[in-house]
Amino acid sequence: MNIIAPVNNVFEVERIIKAGANELYCGVMPKELWEKYNIMSCLNRRPSVTSNLSNYNELAKVVKLAHNHGISVSFTLNEFYPETQYNLVVEEFKRALSCEVDAFVVSDIGLLYMIQKRHLKKCSFKIHISNCGNVFNSKTAEFYSELGAERIILPRDLTIKEIKDLTRLLSVPMEMEAFILNQKCHNIDGFCTFQHGISTVKHKNIFCSKVLHNILGLFPSKALKMVRSYFMKNELACLLGYNLNIVGESNNLKIAEIRESHKQYSSMKKFLYSCGACSIYELNNAGVNYIKIVGRCLFGDKIKDISFIRNCINLLKAVETRKEYIQEIRKLRKRMFGPGMCTKEYCYYLDNDIY
Amino acid sequence: MEKAIYISSLFQLRFWNDEYTRIYFGNEFCDKLIPNLEDTSEIISFVKEKKLSLSLLTTYATDDNLIKFEMLFNILEKAKIDTEIIINDWGLFKIAKNYPFTLVLGRLLSKQKRGPRILNVIDNLPRVAQDRFRKCSINAYFNEFLDKIGIKRIELDNLLQGVSLEEIEDKNLHFSIYIPFGYVTVSRVCLYSYNKILNRTNCKNICNKECLMHHCILNHAEMPASLILKGNAVFFNNSNIETILQNKENRIDRIVYEPEIPF
Asked: Which of A191, A194, A237 has the CB atom closest to B108's CB atom?
């Protein structure tokens, strides 16, 4: 079982690898691109400079450092691109290729088709299908295999049972990667069309500057969480505190239930600190060999997250049964993240039966 | 201009009149609302009787649900009527291409930027970035790929910020536009199931289709238009279509009228 960890700047590469990451993933938001097209036209679904490396020189340094440790780097180009952006994305693809990245995380069919036709046979990189490629079944995985993909990043929305079905029925060799920590959005990522990055445009980008990001890194964890929640509160349209009017046949009990459900559903805390660690045991049995820590746009606790998941993987060898594994993981989660952080609200995989 | 009507349940057939030459039937957003064989057979009878064409709406599908769709495809094939399948899952495409149906790229795969919040900032963006939010993800290579696999129609929503298809060169590509409800986002955990999942140890078979009885209107100062939450999907409402239809470059030749929230 391998850990895929996010990288936002070259200075953290060594620490991330030391904490236990087996692969790195990242994107680039060059200043010239931002100035010409605005950050809202970001090519990798993370429209903020803090979520991305600053330029391709920095990417080349990240790749070199990672390769020195025998660690591979995948590069995210996982948006969907209309004709207006197409030349631009091809240019960015070539620039990343020249930095010798090991894989591209892609979801746009046009980009995949172009890569397959023009580059795949000539070069040694791999194609990973982003979770935005919406692989809900074995046939979709086979569809992407025909387009040259070697790895599927599974949508957050599949249950463990559905992942098991998918890997069992798959008729082609394919690596499987699943999300394990942070940002369990309740919407299906590849079908969600809310735009992120609006606050960045409104506040003239100051809240997303790298300087602020680095300053926030100096804060103690609790303060950091508050600042993070404050900035993200109005950033994500899915988590806005909407005024809710219910239309249709209802009694007061039903209305109260719907309101409570909506409140729970839109919880920022649940979104930020979601966790699937106790499912590693079953994911491993289902043939999922790569687990992803989300965090290109999160401040701070990355090293702790990686260490936690590394410990969880190590426990696989130390226990006999799933029950024993889950008990140990829950103790570990409590020890590292404090009490109250392991309840069903935080679960990545909602069909798990541990509660 | 072809006019079609979007029917999610047999009850909605009351909205049909002879202005509509095609029926869209099914659900694009929830895999628990895949039509059953009985309802599909009734729709087939209705379509045959009125001499209409049929478009079956499909959604994303887990491996279990692929089997349900195959069963629907089998009865549609036997019915020998003019049938389109609206594809929203590439795995389902691989199955549907073995049948004698016309395949259409659905709204979940046409990748428009639909969130109304863009209206707050779009005027502050550079022109090229503004354009990006009015287009779908049809670039030259995707267009070539669609041509190769035989897809010649793409389904679109009527974006609040406007729709532009001017750079798409392929004159053989056709577009449909859905009126008045456009989808913004979709989840696999609806408000009703979420509470049940949190309160039960077993989350199987927890759908009682409560979503068909209610919807919620969502308002927030940051959101320039009201959103409609129905079941596991969020929609906006935009019935203003005149500007789009006046633009001949857009090549929209079908309107899909949704008499109710498409659920």
From this structure: A191
Q: Which amino acid is at A120?
A: L
Q: List the strands of the sheet with A243-248, edge to edge.
A: A243-248, B214-219, B227-230, B233-237, B181-186
The residues facing B54 across adjacent strands are B23, B83
Cβ <8 Å between B129 and A38? yes
Nearest chain B alpha carbon to A239: B220
Could you give the CA distance from residue A80 to residue B114 in angstroms, rounded to a whole number?
A: 13
Q: What secondary structure letter does DSSP report for A196?
A: P
Angstrom CA distances, B87 to A133, B92, B97, B107, B231, stand at 14, 7, 10, 9, 21
In the predicted structure, residue A121 carries a pLDDT above the cut 50 = yes
Which residue's structure tokens are 């009865």? B75
Size of interface A-B (CB pairs under 8 A): 235
Contact B108, B27 (CB under 8 A): no
Residue with tokens 């006999």, as numbered in its chain: A320
Q: Do A113 and B143 touch (CB under 8 A)?
A: no
Nearest residue in chain A measured CA to CA from B67: A137
> CA quadruple A244, A233, A348, B66: dihedral positive or negative?
positive
Say which residues have a Cβ less than 8 Å from residue B106's Cβ, sequence separation at least 6: B28, B57, B58, B86, B87, B88, B155
Biggest CA pair distance of chain B: 56
3-state secondary structure of B55: strand
With cut-offs at 50, 70 and 90, classify the pLDDT of residue A195.
confident
pLDDT, tens only, B19-73 = 999 999 999 999 999 999 999 999 999 999 999 999 999 999 999 999 999 999 9
Between CA B194 and CA B136 the distance in angstroms is 32
Backbone angles phi, psi at B225, to 5 degrees: -135, 155
Using CA atoms, how far apart are residues A108 and B98, in angstroms rounded to an integer? 24
Adjacent-strand bridge partners of B227: B218
Please check the confidence at residue B218 and state whether its pLDDT lies above 50. Answer: yes
